[in-house]
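Give me the 3D structure for Receptor-like serine/threonine-protein kinase.
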Amino acid sequence: MMKEHRQCFAIFFFIYLVFCSSQFAISQRLVNFISGVPTLWINRPSIGSILGRGILNYTPILLEGNASLRFLYGFSCDFNHTECFLGISLVLYNSTGETIYIEGGQLVWSANRDHPVQVNATLQLGRDGNLVLADSDGTLVWSTNTTGKSVSGLNLTETGNLVLFDTTNHTVWQSFDHPTDCLLPGQNLVSGQKLTASVSADNSSQGLFSLTVLNGSWATYIDSDPPQFYYTSENPDSPYWSFDGHTLTALQYPPTSIAQYIQLGHDGHLRVYQLHNLENSMFGLNWKEVGDILTLSDCRYPMVCGRYSICINGGQCTCPVEVNFFKPFSERVPNLGCTVLTPISCDSSQYHSLVELKNTAYFSFRFNYELNSSVFWLKIEDCQRACLSNCSCKAAVYVGSLDVSLPGSCLLLNEVFSLIDSSEISGTTVFLKVQNSSYAPVISPRQKLPFKVIIGCTLIGIILILSVCSALSKKRSEKHKAGDFLDLEPILPGILTRFSYNELEIITDDFSRKLGKGGFGSVYEGTLSNGTKIAVKHLDGVGQVKESFLTEVKTVGGIHHINLVKLIGFCAEKSHRLLIYEYMVNGSLDRWITQENGLTWHKRQMVILTGQRLRYFVHWNINFDLNFGI
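Predicted structure for Receptor-like serine/threonine-protein kinase (630 residues):
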């Protein structure tokens, strides 16, 4: 019986330990945790009585601090729990009985800023001493790489430093040696370490801007290849930091401030923030900017106007005037930069040229010069040539010497960020490399075309002009020759049919059936598609028969008489002039006159008299038309 009671007690005790282990993370007593066995924490933002206000929900692992403002090491998730980060946050901590409230929160360090995890992700301190973060599907996300270093415990210090230590209490690994974008008071930055800004206020992934210790100074730069510096430290120290040439240390100023941190922003600024008016913080912490350490003018920041854009008058942005090569990324938001219309291709370097921007400066020239990095002493022509001969070069910055006979300073850029208008300062020029069309290359102002090329282009232009003029003249001449005939259709609308020469070739079987020949041409037999037979009169020559052709079409085409053959249509195409008549089934007049059973002399006399009257009638009509303009 006692044995059964002992077994039940063991089961209940095990369940109690499991329950406690799930609640262990929210206990403020977990400041210094030491364990000789594997320890596991699970990301469960909704467990226990944790209440995340604002947009963050927490799964605390360690808490440090005695007042309401504390450092929290654990998971912080967005409102929908779709992205969670393991890190250290400054939070407002309150408890009522067993209920714990966490308000607001400022993330000052993160282990997985580039790789958010999901709910049920795990953090495990293993027997081998390695602290490992794995996503909910088991994917390895981050670790301290401390395998085999005899790690015996995990601690969060009162300054916000996460520490792994060994049995002798010696620090094996600490978060202060692996900063993200913030420095806490007392935290050092040495050579080989760097701060890296976030992409934006809503995206904590690593962005373009960094701060590091280099060559006896600390400097900020934009991450390119090679890096482009935009600030190097000039003063030995300030109220917010100190620097001895090797170590940059963040300071608490004033010493009585509740909380403070330095952050490298996504815009490249290095700002100091302090907690403001803690008593009235109802929905999170109220951080106030108390200083901008870099003290640069707006145009001196690399991305103030975006890539290839020119910063004017302390913040106004505009694209280079060469509209054939650049356009704004957004017309409504000019500080997003400019896009290159035709990307530069190394396979067609023969079509590269440089666009000259006079009185234009670049933010990194001075600092690269001070650091003896990528600055050469060259003449301006050699500086241009060096950029054109190097495909990686996207632009060249040139600062001339006061003595024009001496070489100036040349900086080659593999990436182009914001440019600076320096119209008040002469001697600084930026040459932007552009990709020209292979058919119409654009030459920079300083380049000259060879004399042979100019002569060749001039001759080609003259030949093209003469060819066009000749073609137009020929077309005008042909139109003039055929002009009179092309106007026949509107003269007799609905009476005559205009035939094409190809149609007549088909109708007459290629003019194979000849009926007769006269002074102006030959007559051929043809058959229309409806079976009607026709006679096609083919006139010889254009100039000789022009007036005869027009007269016959205008007069005969408009007269319909029982004793006159009917004109059906005509053809006036190029040099071809043809008249189409109805076919005389009974043959020609001379055939009937000369045959044996032909006309008697009396009938012949009557025909002659009728013909004379008809001729008079026709001539009278023609004269009437001419005299009265009909």
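The mean pLDDT is 79. Let me know if you want a second pass.
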